[in-house]
Structures are given as structure tokens and as C-alpha cells.
Amino acid sequence: MEEISFELPPKSNFSEWYHQIIQKAEIMDIRYPVKGLYVWYPFGFKLRQLVYSKIKNLLDETGHQEVYFPALIPETEFKKEKEHIKGFENEVFWITRGGSDELDVKLVLRPTSETAIYPIFKLWIRSHANLPLKIYQIVNTFRYETKHTRPLIRLREITSFKEAHTAHRSFEEAEEQVKNAIEIYKRFYDSLAIPYFVIKRPEWDKFPGAAYTIAFDTIMPDGRSLQIGTVHHLADNFSKTFEIMYEDVDGQRKFVHQTCYGISERCIAALISIHGDNLGLILPFDVAPVQIVIIPILYKGEEQKVLEFSRQIYDKLKQKFRTVLDDSEERPGAKYYKWELKGAALRIEIGPREVKEGKVIVSFRDTREKFAVNANELTYEKIEKWAEDMRNRLHDKAKENMKKFIKYFNNLNGLADWLKKGVALVHLCESESCGSEVENRSGGSLLGWLVDIPSWLNCSAEGSCIVCGSKSKLAVLARTY
Amino acid sequence: MEEISFELPPKSNFSEWYHQIIQKAEIMDIRYPVKGLYVWYPFGFKLRQLVYSKIKNLLDETGHQEVYFPALIPETEFKKEKEHIKGFENEVFWITRGGSDELDVKLVLRPTSETAIYPIFKLWIRSHANLPLKIYQIVNTFRYETKHTRPLIRLREITSFKEAHTAHRSFEEAEEQVKNAIEIYKRFYDSLAIPYFVIKRPEWDKFPGAAYTIAFDTIMPDGRSLQIGTVHHLADNFSKTFEIMYEDVDGQRKFVHQTCYGISERCIAALISIHGDNLGLILPFDVAPVQIVIIPILYKGEEQKVLEFSRQIYDKLKQKFRTVLDDSEERPGAKYYKWELKGAALRIEIGPREVKEGKVIVSFRDTREKFAVNANELTYEKIEKWAEDMRNRLHDKAKENMKKFIKYFNNLNGLADWLKKGVALVHLCESESCGSEVENRSGGSLLGWLVDIPSWLNCSAEGSCIVCGSKSKLAVLARTY
Q1: Which chain B residues are Cβ-neighbours of A71 within 8 angstroms?
Q2: pTM of the model
Q3: Cα–Cα 20 to 30 A to A249, which of A443, B217, B299, B345?
Q4: What is the ipTM metric for this complex?
């Protein structure tokens, strides 16, 4: 809205690049006067809407229903599940006053909604016919972060927490849902061309109240890992606390088994960080707020013809794609910078020569190579094909980049040094003592054990624990966000 | 989700009818364990989404951009505008603690977002080229209500506050925007078939910090008025406080003039209350979560043919409309009750006779008359025509009902009695003393003066003040929600 410079620091200086692209590409305004709170610009909010409509569609298609539960949780409910409250009590905001009254029952601003939702699940679930119950909501949640905050990554108000909650007849049926949720998240991140690890978190570092936790992690351009989604099997831990029971086909009253899984706006942090370059955003075509920008190249005396031809192309493309005709007074170079910064996926330039030849000059945001296309060959199908090719290129490149940050170690030599640059794979047994030892000696955090080995990773699933030598699975160590 | 009874109290017992329809039609679960907080069921949330997509479209079409500002406002910003804070300080929730720390700067949970947004407007607005600036957000806001709370009407968490904020070069341009906003809200409520008054609020009872306030009010089935939207001209009151200035074409730095306007989920309270009947929801076709329900009437031995024919119809209609084929095991009567409660706009019954004759039996939710239609005449165009006819019928009926609650008084005789039943129009001058006097003597609240006289109201714009006799405009008195 105000005038901004389009220049970014090089992406190799990732922390500063990230800080500046968030502001300059108008994703978020980082000048809100409270630590850890940021403002979504119109452009950023549009990107958010496009990305979240993907996850919404995936959830709707798979029988999840959207709901909304209150943001305020009474202390009494919040404190019911002992493990859960232990995990969150240092991180929540407390509402203690209304007007000038002290509240009788203090309220917590939801850090996540288990304790808001499950007292109502108790009322909604009566019999096996009500199961499975699968709901989700996209809401603001709040954490009293004392660490360094960062837009989209570490926030005091997570503005866009997509949390799903499900209830099932048995541990096994809930486990099936855990797998379904993993599948949904894979499809979501694949569609964004974001590569990931699927990791089972250590027993001693799982979601407070869960039986076990599966996390999605990706690697950021500085070699640190970013957790971008979690799936929790809650077993009957919460249902016992909140008395969520159903009458089974055999007439017996049983506790439900539950799962919950969440994704926050970290998905957008990953999207921006993984694909962007020194010039700005690079976005897969179908989530780019501006998919196509048309830039007429105007020479004195020939403006009219060029503008007319550009408008024809524009009128056709805007039917189907988010298209901008940038006929502002700026020079073409300034327009290029601006739309590169904003990640317009496809650029179309039209000058007098193109008009004469019935052609347009096309370039993709990622490769930036220009080529000429006959205007009448600029079909919707061709553009969709280009879009899919671009997504594949971005995905391949992102996987290549991620691979460069991953190194396998079968002993501790050099591990600590490597962890200053990237992520390490080690074979590690599941004992907490070996986990602590490798953390202490490497300086990295143990993310957990790979649930599946990505096809593009050349590593064997089993080996000897790097600490005790026992037969072990493949674990991931990293500096984390 | 759990089993519920479909029976409602008669709508003539409005308070109890409202209470029960909200729960039984699965709009909101009212059993959340904190006063004034409720849970949106999947069905209710779908209705919300359909209604809000209408207002979103209207705002998008008219150049408003969607954004998101933080829910937490620092005490320092919140207290800057003196009138504003006076109006809200007894109604806000205070966050005083994070984890076990007392916060240095206390935070307010936004009751509305002027004081969150305007410090950023100061940064976004530099020159006349940035104006007009028109943004909106749909967010949860919070009020510490000490009065009796009620779902969708009086809440401690307003889950769905659509608030727009605009900035302009002059008082006059902002006033133009006030008119545009009124136009947008009229179109919104017309599309929902909800009649309204457009009223200028009394000077002494306007939005805290505004130059003046225009309100939309409708009349609920118990004769009380419900404010369902407000539009505020803020002049330069906030821009002076928050130093929002622009450089004009003449090079001078000037304060912007602002407007803001909001609609909450009260729009859904009105929708439910105004159109519903003893059997449940009646919804205009295009916001009904279920637009068409198909109910096969199954007789032994002929199930197959009827189901097959029903599925053919279903497969065709679901391409275009939100259609349910209710082939559950319940008896047809139970299905009728259920879908009447849920406001399915169009019901299609199909029995063996219809299959034989290639017909279906159609009925509309509002008139409930049944008639036969040839299946091949059940075109999308015909259904859209029916939908539009239904909306017009609902609108006409709602206006008729509203008229019954309105009575003009040219003296105080009987006014107090009438105000126990309905809404009164009186000519009233704009002095606070006459306003107070008529309120005291009638027991009603002065909503303000009609901005325009609806065509369906037979009243003259000007007359003598009911208290002092001076030349006056038409004012509205009511018991309010």
C-alpha cells in the first residue's frame, strides 16, 4: 500500500531474507506493536485463503465437517487432563478480568482446543452410530511465547490453526484415522511442492496427553528443521477424563478412542521459504494470488495497438485465472521486479513486435527463461499444463535442496559440526538415555524416527544404534525452529 | 449428531421457540460450560458460511480487501481514543497473565478493531494515491456481557464479526462511503429477505468515537427490535488520535476521514427468527445448507424402481444444488419433520405412482403445498425460478409481519402500552431532553430517526415533535434486544 523497495537481501542470508520478504511482498506487516503478533496484508491473506482452501477441500472430501468452538476455555475444563495441562500451563494467556470485575472462573485463551471440544463430544456421542465423528475448525489460537518470535513461525496469536478432532470405536480404528490424516497431509504438502519427513516423535516428547505423535518436518534454507504438521493418537486418554462414551453394538458402554491433527500458518512459512529466491516469492501456480501478469511494452506512437492486444489477452485469461494487466505508468523493469517479488507465476510481455506477429513473450517465475508463443495457442489447457510442469519443477528442486541438507552418520564423528549446517540421520534405539546422549553430544534435537523413508532418500531403514549399538530404526536430528 | 426430538414450542412463544430451534436444528450447541459462549454445529456452520459468503462477495465486488489484524490489543493503544475507551472499558476482557508471569502491558481481547487497525493505517497511508483504503475482516470479537446472553444475539465471543474500515481524503468522501456501505447492507439483507429500518442513532447514543452512526434494525417475532448492522462516520476523530495523515495533491499533510461498518452473526439470528415457523427453519433457497431433499416413498416390492428413479433425479440435481437423497430407514413422516426443522427449501417425494407416471411431487418449505411435476420438466432454470419466487414470498411475508408490529403515534396516549407489543413511530425533535422524555414516559428506547422511509411504510417524513411540537423527523421507539 505504501511505497516499498523491491530489493531483498540474498537468500543465502536466510534469516534477513525471510524477515524482509514477509514485509516487502506484503504477506504480513510486522510492525504491529505487540511481540509475536502480525497483520495479514490483503495480498498475504489471499495467499492464506488459497492455501487453506486446499486443506479444507481435502478434509471436506474425506468426510470431515467444519465447526467452530469457543476461543475461551474455563480453567476448570482446561485443568482436567493432567498431562495436557502440564504441557501447556506455562504457555497460555489468562483472562482474569472482565471490565473492572475479577472473574470467578479464570479463562484460558485456547492454545489448542481439546479441552474446549471434548466436553461437547461427551454430549454428541451416544452410540456407535455416531462414530466415527470427524470435525475440524480453522481458528486463532494463542501461546505465550517467551522465545524469539517470528512471523508465521513462532507466534503469540496463531491466526490460522487448522485442527481436526476425531472419535472412534477402538484404538485400531483411531490408528486407521492417523494413517488417513498422514495421507491427507502428504497430499496437501505434495500439492504445494513441499518435501517433508514423516516422523514419529519420541515417547518423552510427544503431544501432552497423546499415546503417540507423528510429525511432518521440512528443512528450511538455513538447514534448520520446521515442524509443519502433527497427527496425534490420543487413545482413550482424553475420553476417560471427559467421559466420552458410546454404546457399542454389543450394548456395552465404552470409551471412544480419539485422534487430533493440526496444521498452522507454518505451511505458508515453508511455502515462502522453500521456493522463494533472491528476487522474491515463487509460488505454485494454483496458490499464487496473481497467477498471470500481463505487461504491455509501450513505445511512443504504438501504445494503442499494444494495449488493445494486451486487453484481448487479458479478457480471455481472466475468465479462468487470477490475471493482472499491469498498464500502470511504471517502467517495465520496475514492473518485472514488483511481480517477481510477488511471485506472479507466469509473465506475459507484449510489445509492438508481438502484436505484429500475433505472438506473446512468456516466462515462468521459476526459470525466468523467455520464449515466444502464438497468441492463439495460449489456451487454458496449455497454461494448466505449464502450471503442472512448474509444480513438478519446484517439487524436484525442493527435494534436491532438502537432500543437500541431509547427511547420514554411523558414528558421532563430525555429527555436531554437521548439525550447524544441516540435518542428520542416524540409527538410534528408542531408549530415552540414548536419545539424550546423542542430543547432548551433537547439540541437535531428536525429532524422532522416520515413519517412512522417502523414495528420494538413499538410506536403509534399519541399522545399529549410534549410541548403544542395538538394532534400531532411522532417526532424525536437527536444529529446530 | 446425538438423537434429538424434532418438536418445537409454538413460535408465538418466541423466546422458548428461539432457544430450542437453535439447539434442535443444530445451529449451535448451547451447552458450552461458559456463559455467553456457544458451539457452531456443522449444520449451523454451513449456514454461517453461506450467509457470510454473500456479504464477502458484496464487499469484494465493491473494492474491499480482506485482511486479518491481531485479536490482542495493547492497553496503551486501546486507551488512546478517549471517547472510544469510555464506551468500551466496562465491556472488555483483560489478559493480565501469560503462563505464570504478570504481563507488563496488559492486553485487551478486541471488542472491535479500531485500535488494532488504525496504528497500522498510519503506516499504510502516505499520500492521496493510497486513498480510498477499504479493508474488511471477519473475526471473533469479545464482550464481557453482564446482561442475559443469548445465542447469536448477545455473546461473550462474537464469533463472526464482519468489520470494514475505510479511509478517505475528506469528510464528504467518507460520507459517500457511508452511503455505499448502507447500499451494500441493503442488498445483503434484501437477498436474505429480511426487512429493516435504516436509522440515524441519537447524537448521545452513537458509536464511541464516531461523528454519527447509522443502524440497521429489524423487528423480531416478539415485537422487539434487533440491531443487525451499523455504519459509522468517524470523521477525523481517530485519525487525529492515531496520526493517520496523507499528503494531498496540493502537497499539504492532512488527516484522513474514516468510516467503519459491521455486521455480526445477529444476521443469522434475524434470518432464523423472521422466516421460521412452528415446524422449524425456513431459509431462502440460496443460503439453505440443504436446498433440496428427495424422499423416496418405499412400498414393499417396489423399493428398487423407486430408489433407482430417485437416484436419477438426485444425480442430476446434486450437480447444481445442495441436495440430499434421504434413503435412510426412517418412516417418511419422520423425514418430513426432520427436513422441515432443518429448512430444506424444496422437498421432492417419489413413490411408485410417480415412477410409473414419470413425475415427482414437489413442495416448498414455506407454503408446504404439494404439486406434481413431470420429471423431465425439473430443470435447473425452473428450480432457480422457484427459488426466486420463494425469496419474494418470504420477503413479502416478512414485510407484512414487520408492518403489524409498527404503529404511528402523534401523542403519548397508549404509547407505553403499545411498546409492550411492538415498535412505535413518532415525530420527535433531535434534542436530548425530548428524547429522554419520550423514553421515560413510554418505557421504550429511542433507536433514532429514519434515514429513509421504506416504501411499504405509510408514514410522512415530517411532523410535529411528540414532546415539544417543533418540526421534526420520524423517530423509532422500541424495546430492544
Answers
A1: 71, 140, 142, 157
A2: 0.96
A3: B299
A4: 0.96
